Amino acid sequence: MAEPARPLFFQTAEQRTALARQRFFDEGERPTGLVNEAVIQSWMRCTAARRDARQAVSFDPVTRSRMHACLTRNQQLLAAGNEDLQQLAAALLGTSCRVLLTDGQGVVIHASAPLGTAPQPLLDAGSRVGVNLAEGEIGTTAPGIVARVASACTVHGAEHFHEMLQTLHCAAAPIRDVHGRLAGVLDLSIEGSPFGFDAAGLVALYASTIENRLLRLQSPAHLVLQFQASPRVLGTPLEGLAGVDVNGQLAWLNPVAQRLTGANALAHPPVDEVFGLAFGDLLALHRAREPQALRLPNGLTVWVRAHIGSADGVDFNRAVATGAPSVQADEVTPQAPSTDVAPSSTLDDHRDRVITETLAACGGNIARAARQLGVSRGLLYRRLRAPPGAAPASADAH
């Protein structure tokens, strides 16, 4: 008796996933086009590792010493995400979702409290600090895939490799550090029903916000540039961010900045090749009260703000403003002349100059200049006694 013909089209994602599982697990075929390619790749890795889809999995925490090491190593990531994780949890109060933050290896370092009254036995087990959600531990999940491949991913229901996890739905996005490495994974998970909103879009938005905060935290000695084609989106997850080191070379770019400039931060090119301005001109932008228009070498005009990190405790952005002239978009060229800083100067030279100018503007009053810079008088004395371009031996930001 002939087998019934397979339908050519499926009306629901659940039907397509069921067919994908049948082809992959029962028939040994690759279900291309039926489920996300990232899911297929994860299934293949799990199969190669001789995992059994029918086997039960447990959400086991790592050892106490490893958990302590994870929390210690990821203090900056937790600090960067603290405010946004609270905001995200508040936004999800009317849902049954959990918010998870893992380190780059998939170990949970933050988990939101359970919401609602519906039982969630799997999320109760998995949403604990120290639990290892890596693909090698519990098979195909969104946070496990992102921890493995560092790309955003959503896994719905039966797309999970293990059958016992098919009541879960999860969406996760990567968070990268200043070296371009995976620093952590932000995940939204729900049990028992699909998401009632665009979970992938929401988790990507908050992951970008946390990543931008982390990049700033990891750049105390960098000139940080905020830029976008519209000045209205500066300070939002849509802004481009770039870090420039003390020698005027590009240290890092966030994904938005990579798309706007087309530059490769890993090559650490001179900043003038990326932004069309000498380092000194970019340094001068931090004194401007409003975003400045800048035409990039690729022809795109963006609006830029500059912020100098406070590696030695001095907040140079609180120094007395010099009233840098506003620049109009049609006036900006890659060869724009310097306004405040010699193009050959370094970031440390500029820090010394700002201290000197602030002290002069305060009539030589150390106490007043220290208040203006947001530091103690002792730190300012040490900075003034230090050789030009050298940071003091100790930093006291009080």
UniProtKB/TrEMBL annotation:
UniProt biased composition (Polar residues): 335-346
Residue intervals of the DNA binding HTH domain: 353-385
Entry protein name: Fis family transcriptional regulator
Domain of life: Bacteria
Region (Disordered): 325-349
Segments crossing the lipid bilayer: none
Pfam families: GAF (PF01590), HTH_8 (PF02954)
Gene Ontology molecular function: sequence-specific DNA binding
